[in-house]
Amino acid sequence: MMKHLQPYTLLLLFILCFSCKKQDQKDQPKDDQQQSKSRSLNSIPTITEFDTLINPNAPDRITRKIRKDKEGNLLMASFTDVMLYDGISFSKLPKSEGIESFDAFDALEDSKGNIWIASTHYGVFRYDGKNFLHLTTDDGLAHNRTMDIHEDKAGNIWFGTEGGASRYDGKSFQNFTTKEGLPHNDVSTIIEDKTGKLWFGTRGGVSIYDGENFVNFTNKEGIPLLNGSEQLWRYDSKSFVNVRSIIEDRKGNIWLGGSDGLWKYDGSTFTNFTQQFVGYINEDSKGSIWLSHTINKSNKWGLSRYKEDSLLIDPTANPILISEGMLFGISEDKEGVIWIGTVDGILSYDGKTVNHFRDKEIEE
User: What is the rounded CA–CA span in Å between residue 134 and residue 364?
Assistant: First the structure.
């Protein structure tokens, strides 16, 4: 029957079929994922050489997380020590008696002015400006390997540990594990969104806690869920595995970074931006999203930025720098300078130049 159709009729049918196919693709979140694969995070020249600046007490060990204190100064968890940067110079927090190294993974100033330190071996420390409180599994902490600290709106201090999430109310711990509903006991990151719900990023998926129940975004079939029952869309069995970083931006979007790349959740839909491994995410004062990530088919790492205006139209990553070693936490100081943790200290980026800070010259 097709052989009797006129050429212009065949052409019209082709255009209609092609248009329908494009519309179907547009309506499927999974096709956003396929489109994002073609977006390269290292498609333009980037900075590969850094100037070295000598500054006493600057971190020179692996620096995983960088946070702001209440004054806008930077707290840097740099393994042996925790450093404070006030915009001019670095200073070291004193150490608890008998501790030569904090083995620090994270540091946070709470609403009372205490500084909490998460250690990879020694549990957690609290410094009130004069004295230290050292808490371990002997005090009820879920595990002595701790990776993340969060203070909730009620003033409780949460710790992401290798044995679950621990909540400290100032007197005792309450622990949350897979028995309570977490998808995995290795908790890498914890945040609280604007609605008061807590988000947990683990090696086995993402979970939301409303104060009573945990809702996991993936089940055994890899189907992200909302409110425990509503199917958002099907991805695969590795969706949201090994989530290292979660942030909420100023618009209320949730950003997830980990083994399955960078994702944004707007409250109803997931959008994938890249499938390269993403270590850390940060939103700057201009609304741009920064991320540290692997570079395809290499052992190198990159720092990239999605400018706010591109997020509204056609999200395009602007690669900033490439590093031979891993890149970790990202933060912005009071002057708008971006700071990045590395395996041997920290980098700063002022929009033009990347500086590598060191405590002293490297001995040959």
Answer: 38
